[in-house]
UniProtKB/TrEMBL annotation:
SUPFAM superfamilies xref list: Calcium ATPase, transduction domain A, Calcium ATPase, transmembrane domain M, HAD-like, Metal cation-transporting ATPase, ATP-binding domain N
Annotated organism of origin: Thioalkalivibrio denitrificans
Domain Cation-transporting P-type ATPase N-terminal: 8-81
Protein name, as recorded: Carbonate dehydratase
Origin organism lineage: Bacteria, Pseudomonadati, Pseudomonadota, Gammaproteobacteria, Chromatiales
Record membrane topology: Multi-pass membrane protein
UniProt keyword Cell membrane present: yes
Origin superkingdom: Bacteria
A molecular-function term among this protein's GO annotations: metal ion binding
Compartments reported by the entry: Cell membrane
Pfam families per UniProt: Cation_ATPase, Cation_ATPase_C, Cation_ATPase_N, E1-E2_ATPase, Hydrolase_3
Amino acid sequence: MRAKQDTAWHSRGVEDVLEALEVSDKGLGTEDVKARLERYGPNRLPPPERAGPLKRFLLQFHNVLIYILIAAAVGTAFLQHWVDTGVILGVVLINAVIGFIQEGKAEQALDAIRSMLSPKALVLRDGERHTVPAEDLVPGDIVFLQAGDKVPADLRLLRVHNMRIDEAVLTGESVAVDKQADPVDEDADLGDRASMAFSGTLVAYGQARGVVVGTGAETQIGRISTMLGEVEQLTTPLLRDIAVFGRWLSVAIVLLAGFTFVFGYWFRDYDILETFLAAVSLAVAAIPEGLPAIMTITLAIGVQRMAARNAIIRRLPAVETLGSVTTICSDKTGTLTRNEMTVKSIVTAEDVFEVGGVGYEPHGGFSRDGQDLEPDEHPVLSEALRGILLCNDAEVRQRDGEWRLEGDPTEGALVTAALKGGLDHKETNELYPRDDVIPFESSYKFMATLHHHHEGNHSFVYLKGAPERVLAVCDRERTVDGDREIDNDRWQQQMDEIAAKGQRLLALAVNDVEADKRTLEFPDIEDGGLTMVALCGIIDPPRDEAIESVAECQSAGIVVKMITGDHGVTARAIADNLGIDTAGGVLTGHELEKISDEEMKQTVREVDVFARATPEHKLRLVKAIQANGHVVAMTGDGVNDAPALKRADVGVAMGIKGTEASKEAAEMVLADDNFASIAHAVEEGRTVYDNLRKAILFLLPTNGGQAFTIVAAILLGLTLPLTPVQVLWVNMVTAVTLALALAFEPTEPGVMERPPRPPETPILSGFLIWRVAFVSALLVAGTFGHFLWMEQQGVAVEIARTAAINTLVMGQLFYLFNSRYILEPVFNRAGLFGSRAVLIAIGVLIVLQGLFTYAPPVQFLFGTAALGLEEWGRILAFGVALFVLVELEKAFLKWREVGADR
Ligand code: ATP
């Protein structure tokens, strides 16, 4: 076997390829797979190269501020002020270490999430279909492909049905190419190798089966080194704005520091070194250098929390957008409902049969008017059961005592119904082998299969699909006494009755064709002349948690719209159950097609339920809702949903039943396909945004308080209340560490009771600027006031400074509590004790300040001195006063409804 070399698989015949890869038509056996996996390794591309730890550590120093600090260290060393030099370098180093660790943690969090999205493949092994992680594929594996799949390895196609593949990732060609099983010329270019499906490309249409010829780095995509993914930047538009703001602020601060230096030296006669150091420490104190790191960490923690609640973020900016979502458009089946389908009724031309049992377990019998019966005594029912079993790709199997479904749940429910009727899957398929298929697509809403009797004397087509589609091509109906003209009114009435119970409808029709017919085309169905056999009613109960989440979204000012492929009456019944507004009526896809874009804008304001919708309708709906100024989250799972998902502000794909194509197009993937997870993600998105604001609201005033204390002293020509190294200390222990605690803030109460944030609101709102100025002023007043007062009492300057610093730190400590909620009061149990991170940060800070004040070596380094109880009393009183004042400010703003623009 020579799977590793390029052996021009595309030009070799199917038999030859299978022989070369030593695989039978039953696929590989388990032992063989194991051996090959060992030999070829997992089907995975080597991870993209990342900067090594050393480089990442050194990059922490690549920052203008650090350069200034290093220059200051060199300056002080030159003047032999070794203590200052040591402290400055210590601060630089500790900052770098903290930054390095934080960054590492943030990246780890994201890596863990990426690995949750690993693709799966459907393979044939030991004669059975299995879904396995794509990583476990080995050369020789036989893989099934269908529309929406991402090709999991390089495949030589063995059997192809109308397959088109989008190979843009590989060839740059955006038009999907037709595929075939016949070999092509040996010298064909990559784009012309129609007999191959290449790893990483997307199946746009059709079905096929192929054999793996290359895995991992041995695939075409693996060989193109440039393709090996770029590492995504840990950022979002908001974070970029903040970074830009931070840079401007830094420039302003450096100018201010320069001015202070010039002013202090020339007009206030300070010593040049002291002024220089004061200017440097001013810059360090004022520049919110911790801000970017804290933003990144907040974002990473948000993403991680969302993942823990089953919402996996694929593109980081979505975290922010989620917080301002105003409309969620959701699919019904599986997202709002449980997707555990059970056939409850089967209606034929003359009878209504009830089916017992729940779930995929084939236990339960048939009855009519409450009387149990044997299905094989009812020929039309038997025919219906056979039809729904044959025109079906799902399998229901018992494994470990439990009945499990492989395939689509609607089809699974039909298989189970047939098994309940005593049919055997394998036997039926052998009796009536399938010759061809038109697979189900939500755009045309049916599936058709062509079969012949195994003795070859009889061929027929089964059509199953949405009843309107099926009825439209039927002119006869089957009865016990043979076929007769169809009674459309009766079928229509039966449909309405079943749908009103919220059941999903599916119809089955049959048509006899020439015995030698072996291929099935659309005209075979669309030309009509079929015979209606039965109508099935399938229940799919709403998820309990979806009912709650819909209510939660509505109280959060978010409109929930349901867009479903199901029948209008079914859709309305389910929407009513879920609490989705049906007052505006239910609009069908057919009606949608008749209205103009302008009318559509009006319609989407009134109607919340859309039935019999196709993916194309979804795209139009998103556009219309957006045109009304809404921020839209839209769910989707099929290959054709990709454009709507891309267009939506937050495209949401389904992790379990979603196609790879829809996942690629989406910003977010739901690990559990559950609507509740979207609501959770919105809640977390709002929390992340709140926490980003909280970090800013906390950091800027602490920086402001520190900086203005120094500026005021210099302008007034007074003794500096904080020496430069002391400023560096305060900055390090508070700004960086305390603020970090806010990144871990849990969701504020009432987050889902307020309206969505208008997307254009700037983060630096008037309210924010006010709060920053207000708290900065309080901190300056306390710190400076305490220092001046103590100086006047004639205490040593070391003691006065130590008291001033502790006043500043205490003020920041209390303000950290205030900052936990932006406008809500925190003077309650949850507010004061609700965050472990805050309590830990405060505990650590108290220990550090204790050392700073009392430990002799630290006293020597920073020029501090021990404080007495009396000083601590005043310091504590200031902290409490600041806390109370900020709480009063919040209450006032809330009362006046200022700051509600958050
Ligand atoms: P949603 O968009 O809410 O997930 P859905 O899954 O019901 O809705 P579709 O999958 O487009 O939407 O299904 C629409 C209709 O097509 C169903 O009501 C049913 O009548 C029919 N249908 C669904 N699955 C199949 C299938 N596998 N074979 C034949 N017909 C099907």
